[in-house]
Amino acid sequence: MAENNATEIQAKSTAATIMAVLAICGVVTFLVCLWSDQPQRAWRAYLINFLLWSAMAQGGLLFSVVLQVTNARWGRGLRGVAEAFAAFFPISLLLFLVLFLGRDHIFPWLHMEDLHGKEVWLNVPFLFARDLAGLAFLYLFGMLYLLQSLKLKRICNNQAQRRDDLLQTRPGEIDAAAGTRRRMTTLGVLYIITYAFVLSLIGYDLVMSLDPHWISTLFGPYIFIKAFYLGIGGIIITAALLHLNAGHAFEVPSQEFHDMGKLFLAFCLVWADFFYVQLVVIWYGNIPEETVYVISRVGHAPWRTLAWAVFGVSFVLPFLVLINRRVKTMPRMMLALCGIVLIGLWLEHLLLVGPALDHGTARLNLGIPDLLITLGFCGLMGSAVSYMLKRYPELLISGEGRS
Amino acid sequence: MPGTREGTMAEERYVMGLFRDDTCAARVVRDLPAQGFKVVRVHSPVPSHGLLDALQIKPSPVGWLTLIGGIIGFFSGFALAIFTATRWDIMVSGKPIVAWVPFVIVGFEFTILFAVIGNVIGLLLMMKLPSFKGLKYYDPRCSGDHYGVLAACGDGQQQSLADFFQAQGGEVQVFTD
After folding, report:
1. Residue B2 falls within a domain, yes or no?
2. Which chain B residue has the Cα nearest residue A324?
3. Which residue of A has its CA nearest to B71?
4. What residues in chain A have their Cβ under 8 A from chain B's Cβ atoms?
5. Which of A11, A61, A291, A362 could form a disulfide with A247 if both were Cys (CB 3.0 to 4.6 A apart)?
6. Predicted confidence band at A154 (pLDDT cuts at 50, 70, 90)?
7. Which bin fits B7, alpha (ψ -120 to 50), beta or left (φ > 0)?
8. Which domain holds residue B49?
9. Tens-digit pLDDT profile for residues B18-36
10. In DSSP terms, which residues pair with B18 in a beta bridge?
11. What is the CATH number of the domain that holds B43?
């Protein structure tokens, strides 16, 4: 038992060290890029990664929130993993503030002569103020929800311990648990509403506004659906890593992997559907200022290849693979698949952001620095999640207590 | 769950054990072959994972029929859209006659429709429905709150089978024909 604990701690600290090293590598690469001749590229990678990893954290917590709000009985073992993603919230808020320093490189409309009246919406003070306020609200609700969830776990653990001592549960404690659950549901509903609103805002402000003459009403929903898709992927990756880690006691029943796989497939379809719904409207309308956005991404090199790669990797591949029932119950396969989809969605962010930042470029301009910056963000996310799981080990105990 | 391990031989007698809970019924299903009896059929008022595990039924091929239906539907949807578009080939607002983007909708809907039809056909085939004869050995309590395990034994062994069911805590229905 003691030996087991020792290997467990060792495995944990090795993982934490790797994550910390990755994060430092990323920061160093970013700074080097910034002070060399390619600050533009550094900020592009920064924006993509900020959007991607923040979305994963926001969508990850959303999974637990949705289960709470719908009174779901399944997925108890995975809710803790989902809640651990909230550890990235403070980091994400800081990263957003850093984005302010790169505003000249990421907002092409700052250098445009005429915005045709859009100056009212697209100006730096208002944009940063509203997005910061939005994110602050979202993260506040998320953190409060997390606090209540941890409190509930503590109450239930106390109850379970006392039951071992053959003592009765005190009536006051049942009230406390029920009250905490009620507060969780209220905060959960607030989180969901804010999630939809704020992620749409982020989508409009940080992605869509890069092409200030292009508008698509459904772009916001597209962004928050994608974030949930990403979040579920992130939960599967984390759960599979913990499950496969022999030194760790955490285990996910194959039935729960199966359920998560089904949800992942479902949101793969919803995400693709939201893309298609936008596309079909633009296609029918055939208005040049709308079609140019699609044509520049799907019709012209170098983005054309990237667009088809994203379609294949993030939609066709998971769709075809996940039709199979057994694959969904195999942690290794799901780990690989979700990893590939994650890379696909990184490229999808590049596809949305890239053409706006590098007009008429002949090359994708992808390379080692982008990879290192991405790994740096991955390290930040990994550190945050592993810190959270180490600090609150009760997150991984699925015995949340049935009411 | 009717229709599992059906098959009749001459000189077989049928006895049904009726149990109030599915763990009991599942245990009986597991133990019967060791006692030298054959499980013919199990009736369950509600779906039960315990019984499914005990029966060790092969995975159902209905999923494959659903998949085949879906694939056929995907292509027939596009085929229908393309066929009808080419029958009336007037260009509208500069769109091509065979336009892939909107045809995805037809393809998608047909995928779902045909997958559902494939699924229903699969269900009917696997459950051998519709069946007009009714079940020969059946007890109405199986439609109430009892799990019925129908077992077959050789002529003259009915009593020992009935005793076995009773020893496991079940009620017994012996069929004489």
Report:
1. no
2. B63
3. A320
4. 276, 279-280, 283-284, 286, 323, 325
5. A11
6. confident
7. left
8. 12-58+133-175
9. 888 888 888 888 888 888 8
10. B148, B171
11. 3.30.70
Residue A219 structural domain: 9-396
Percentage above 70 pLDDT, chain A: 91
* A280 vs B contacts (CB less than 8 Å): 101-102, 104-105
Q: What are the C-alpha distances in Å from A358 to residues A177, A363, A364, A365?
A: 54, 10, 9, 9
Nearest to A280 among B93, B94, B102 (CB): B102
Q: Are A259 and A18 in contact (CB under 8 A)?
A: no
The total domain count for chain B is 2
Give pTM, 2 decimals.
0.85
Number of domains in chain A: 1
- Give the per-residue pLDDT at B99: 87
Q: Which amino acid is at A115?
A: L
Assigned domain for A303 exists:
yes
HSE-CB at B50 with a 13 A cutoff on CA atoms is 13
Question: What ipTM does this complex have?
Answer: 0.75
Indicate whether A358 belongs to any domain.
yes
A225 CA to chain B: closest CA distance, Å?
20
Contact A280 B63 (CB under 8 A): no
The 10 Å Cβ neighbour count of residue A348 is: 24
Same domain, B50 and B83: no
Question: By a Cβ cutoff of 8 Å, what residues of chain B touch chain A?
Answer: 63, 67, 93-95, 101-102, 104-105
Considering the domain architecture, whether residues B22 and B106 belong to the same structural domain is answered as no
Whether residue B76 is found in the same domain as residue B116: yes
What are the angstrom distances between the C-alpha of A402 and each of A151, A177, B13? Answer: 15, 10, 47
Q: Do B141 and B89 share a domain, yes or no?
A: no
